[in-house]
Amino acid sequence: MNIGKLFLVSALCHFSINAYAENIEGTFVPFKYGDFNQWITRSIKESGIIGGDTKTLYEIGPTQHINGNVAYTNKGGSPWATSNVYAKVSGITKTNNSVYRDKRGNGYCAKLVTHIEKVKVLGLINIKVLAAGSIYLGDMKEPITGTKEGVAAANWGIPFTKRPKALRYDYRVQLSGEANRIRQNGFSSGKTVSGKDMAMTVLFLQKRHEDAKGNITAKRVGTVVITYDKSSSGWVNGATYKIMYGDIRSQAGYKPSIMGLRSCDYARNSKGVNVPIKETGWASDNETPTHIILQFCSSHGGAYIGSPGNTFWIDNVGLVY
Fold it and tell me: Please, is 84 exposed, middle or buried when counting C-beta atoms within 10 Å of its C-beta (0-12, 13-18, 19+)?
């Protein structure tokens, strides 16, 4: 049972750049359920061979409880998905929970945590996998039933045809304090990966096209890529990041290895099949997008890589017009 593959959704491809909040005035429009005051809880019983515990998974949507091992689909028009996973592989039911509902004032926020997920068989730990906490616009096909699904089970992005000025949200960061990261994929002892683990935010506006065979291509309309390399001293409210439109290769600070076009995300086509999104070029400055990708993650290095203990709190997410 390749448990490691089940947690590939925890991060997008390795993209990161430090960015700083700006003072951008305009009308703030929150995403639906973007105040994270409503949550769905799910009680899922894992297979007896790995302990038989009943685990609680959290999803972002209208307040309710779902009891039983049932596949989740977004509720109440919620645009949000999480890296929390219900999987049934080779008859074995397993979960991963790395996104939590956390108390904030009189309401709640989203708490994203990087941790080691352990699988016990007959009382022995035989698999350990690093999983990062992630929330994103889109949905997840459940249950994951094969070891090759991984990222391909996620539907990244939602339809979107506006041109906002900026992304705005409240955040809090607590980094692990480790100088380096680890790579823990479940099949060997952890390996050291140089560099500090960072919390990450990415936003991409895309103009997508689907051909007759169901292949999806896209032009990049807008870009925001942010990482946090220091713990914050409490909450930072209303952090605002300008969306860069069009071909940004000539803009100061552009780095092709981390901000360039990509083909590692998946989306569900009109045939109901998840296929890669291949970005083929940069849209013009005044282009209108068809979709938005937005993700917050407690680690930035990609699947299996990070520092246990990295924690990223998110609240009040929306766009400025």
Answer: buried
